[in-house]
Design a protein that fits this description.
Radius of gyration: 15 Å
Strand order of the largest sheet: 1-4-7-10-13
Helix content: under 10%
Largest sheet: 5 strands, parallel
Distance between the termini: 35 Å
Order of helices and strands: HEEEEEEEEEEEEEEE
Number of helices: 1
Length: 175
């Protein structure tokens, strides 16, 4: 779902330059970016990235924006499965994630979004527990200065296990 008419399936052998030749994963697309050039990765409605281990998605190129298209459940989904340690890590400065749906598919998921880079922005995103409970959705370190989160919807399970949507271990000027 989510592919335009005439498009081929996502493959890291595709050009990734148009919606009809998409890459397979957000992580691969990040690796094709150049630091601090203002690169934007457009992720189409209905696409799913499955996060199975620590740093499966690594925002490790500074200044990259991941922009999701669609609404509600028909947004790009980042689904955490297999391991409680499955994470998306933001380790460099000036990265942004917009309009993504994060879903927990494993019980006792620990900090699926781990931010250590400065000036990270998370706008219009949503987290939903699907299987079990997430302990802490977003975890920061001291490097997460000037992080800005706006319009995050957090739908954690009401069973025992969740701790908080945010766990601020460090970082100054967080809003």
């Amino acid at each position: 779902t989510g592919l335009p008419v005439g498009a081929i399936a996502g493959s890291n052998g595709n050009s990734g330059l148009t919606p009809v030749e998409p890459f397979s994963t957000i992580d691969y697309a990040i690796g094709q970016c150049t630091a601090n050039r203002g690169d934007v990765i457009c992720v189409l409605p209905g696409s799913t990235d499955t996060v199975i281990a620590a740093s499966t998605i690594a925002m490790d190129v500074a200044g990259v924006t991941v922009l999701g298209f669609g609404t509600g459940a028909n947004r790009p989904t980042i689904n955490y499965t297999t391991a409680t340690t499955a994470t998306c890590v933001v380790s460099v400065a000036n990265c942004t994630m917009i309009n993504l749906l994060f879903t927990g598919g494993v019980d006792a998921l620990v900090s699926p979004l781990n931010v250590t880079g400065a000036d990270f922005k998370l706008y219009g995103c949503e987290y939903r527990d699907v299987t079990g409970q997430c302990t802490d959705f977003l975890l920061t370190s001291a490097g997460a200065t000037r992080m800005h989160v706006k319009n995050l919807r957090y739908d954690g399970a009401d069973a025992a296990g969740p701790n908080a949507a945010f766990a601020f271990v460090g970082g100054d000027d967080i809003t």
